[in-house]
Amino acid sequence: MDFHNLLTLSLQQALGPTAVIYALAAIGLNVHFGYTGLLNFGQAGFMMVAGYGMVFVATEWGLSLWLGTLVGLVLTVILALLLGLPTLRLRADYLAIVTIAAAEIVRQTIGAAKFSDKFGGQDGLTGFIQPFRDANPFSGTKGIPGVVTWSAFDFWVMTVGWLLVALSCVVVWLLMRSPWGRVLKSIREDEDAVRSLGKNVTSYKMQALIIGGLFGALAGFMTALRSASIGPSFFATDVTFFAYTVLLIGGAARVLGPVVGSIIFWFLISALGIFFSQATSGTDPLIPASIMDSTQASLMRFIFLGLGLMLLMIFRPQGIFGDRRELAIDAR
Amino acid sequence: MPAETSLPTNIEAANEEGLARSKAARAALADVKTEPGAAKPDPILRADGIVRQFGGLRAVDVDHVEVQRGVITALIGPNGAGKTTFFNLLTGFDRPDEGEWWFNDKKLNRVPAYKVARMGMVRTFQLTKVLARLTVLENMRLGATGQRGESLLSAMFQPRWAGQEAANTERAHNLLARFLLDKKVQDFAGSLSGGQRKLLEMARALMTEPELVMLDEPMAGVNPALKQSLLGHVKSLRDEGRTVLFVEHDMDMVRDISDWVIVMAQGRIVAEGPPDSVMADQRVIDAYLGAHHDVALTFEEEEKILAAAEAEIEEEQND
């Protein structure tokens, strides 16, 4: 067992581009679910619309990525309006159903063979990354030699990404300490009470849906940039569920919850994966082949992650940053 | 007027002007006819032909009703009379199938609940709705209207709303002191007792500076000691010049504090009047206890019923 290798690779994941993407997606879900109580199960849809918006502008029309991000953000707002208008007046569960369905509709449509000349079908789109590469100020490998290193490109993606995460956290913090944030938290507790005090609840829910979706859009941009390509398979439903896991690990309704949650989540995923792969490989594996072979071992990390999530919900349902006192209160 | 309570209520809100106005309003009620739908000299709320149907059930069917400004009006009636439904209709939380209603002569048809509240007609709920995972102070601050910091554009810039927030906080502290919640300021609202939640809800409603306060069963689930203090608070609302309309089952409370009583039964208004005359009204007694409830059985009738019962038992045994 090579523990140095295990720790190095896991640390690389925990701070790397993937963790950035899930931190951003979970910051969006935190605005939706953690603060406002909106069950958005289609965060992957918001990410996809934004990511494809940005890439499409660059590949199809040959315009700059900056303009692309702008288009992506506008498309995200439109998606939020489309999803919110019919559902936000209804009970909370309707939004959950509609968002999960919408995310799949978006993915199936963009990936459809019929539109493959525009969106590249299942292969997706590439060839937009050069301007982003050219802007990279780094070269060689970066990081702490011997402990953890990244390629110059990954390090550039991380720099941009973590800056976005920091900026997003500041925005969320500023918003949530304001009277506006107080209205959102109150809506999470009891809509009718808020309505009875003269606040337009539907409008606030819509604002929250849009803002959380915009953080998801940032995650979508980063997804495209880090892979130098974009495809429908990047935005499957499990992306949303991983983002929820990240949020629950860190603690909902806490500004830094999604960030810490994402780092821990990707460290564990990577560490468990490497552990089981090492334990079942070689001539004399730690776990004999009669119990488990290496193909089966690659799935073990998800089993353990599920188990961990269950234990978390039982013993620390408020997550890392949550306040136990708050959770002890019956929500109604 | 009932005996003054010995419990502390911290009520200093009453002012000369409010007291004088409410006295005049009460005096004006003396000339009002005691019949369902009676016209009031200065109505703050009027409703006409309000109908709400749930399937085959006509839950609310009110021909005409007016609520006098500056007094305490009680809305009473047996369970299922449609009082809470009527409340929901008036405040925009539900829509009637037919009818029109006005607050301060502004028509409220199709006005959403939050706009009704902004106009100055604020309600509380039968099942208290406190915001459990917010502190008592945050609950109060939410109540303030016209907050600049509640718009997304200025929310991120604290200087734009800090001054207003400080003023609201000051007002919240004063109200909390009045409602004896000043020691709970930083506690989560979810940790309050049932009675304290009622107080908080009432205090929070006052943060909106309402003209008409609508209380849905303010005494439900409140212990007798707190009840006295709550009564004082409701009276204090009138004494600072507000109008109060409340739904209640507790007849002692109704008798104690209301200036006018409206009785509902099976969705309709069956009687109106000052508390004493309403309680003696045969229609009201019928509504609560059913007609013929107080006809004493004569000896012969009792015998007859007994004989019939015995015959029935015998028949069953023979089968």
The major pleated sheet of chain B works out as:
6 strands, mixed
* Largest beta-sheet details of chain A: 2 strands, antiparallel
What CATH architecture of chain A would you give?
Orthogonal Bundle
The proportion of strand residues of chain A reads under 5%
Quaternary state of the chains: heterodimer
Number of helices of chain A: 15
> Which value, in Å, is the CA radius of gyration of chain A?
21 Å
Number of strand segments of chain B: 10
Runs of chain A with pLDDT <50, length 5+? none
Summarize, please.
With 332 residues, chain A is mainly α.
Task: Summarize the topology.
The complex is a heterodimer of chains A (332) and B (319).
Chain A: H1 3-15, H2 17-36, H3 43-61, H4 65-87, H5 92-110, H6 116-119, E1 125-126, H7 130-134, E2 141-144, E3 148-151, H8 152-176, H9 179-189, H10 191-196, H11 201-227, E4 229-230, H12 237-250, H13 257-279, H14 294-315, H15 324-327
Helix pairs in contact in A: 1-13, 2-8, 2-9, 2-11, 2-12, 2-13, 3-4, 3-5, 3-11, 4-11, 8-11, 9-11, 12-13, 13-14
Chain B: H1 16-29, E1 43-54, E2 57-68, E3 72-76, H2 83-90, E4 98-103, E5 106-107, H3 113-119, E6 121-123, H4 136-143, H5 152-155, H6 158-178, H7 194-206, E7 212-216, H8 224-239, E8 243-247, H9 251-257, E9 260-265, E10 268-273, H10 275-280, H11 282-289, H12 299-318
Parallel strand pairs in B: 3-8, 3-9, 6-7, 7-8
Antiparallel strand pairs in B: 1-2, 1-4, 4-5, 9-10
Helix pairs in contact in B: 4-7
Describe this structure in words.
The complex is a heterodimer of chains A (332) and B (319). Chain A is built from 15 helices and 4 strands. Chain A has helices spanning 3-15, 17-36, 43-61, 65-87, 92-110, 116-119, 130-134, 152-176, 179-189, 191-196, 201-227, 237-250, 257-279, 294-315, 324-327; strands spanning 125-126, 141-144, 148-151, 229-230. Chain B has helices at 16-29, 83-90, 113-119, 136-143, 152-155, 158-178, 194-206, 224-239, 251-257, 275-280, 282-289, 299-318, and strands at 43-54, 57-68, 72-76, 98-103, 106-107, 121-123, 212-216, 243-247, 260-265, 268-273. A 6-stranded mixed beta sheet of chain B has the order 6-7-8-3-9-10, with helices on both faces. In chain B, a hairpin with a 2-residue loop joins strand 4 and strand 5 (106-107). In chain B, helix 4 packs parallel to helix 7 (194-206). Chain B is globular, with a radius of gyration of 23 Å. In chain B, 43% of the residues are buried. Residues 1-10 of chain B have low confidence and may be disordered. Chain A binds chain B through residues 171, 174-175, 177-183, 185-186, 188-190, 192-201, 207, 211, 325-326, 329-332, and chain B through 91, 93, 112-115, 117-118, 122-125, 129-134, 138-139, 141-143, 145, 147-152, 155-156, 158, 161, 165, 188, 190-191, 204-205, 207-208.
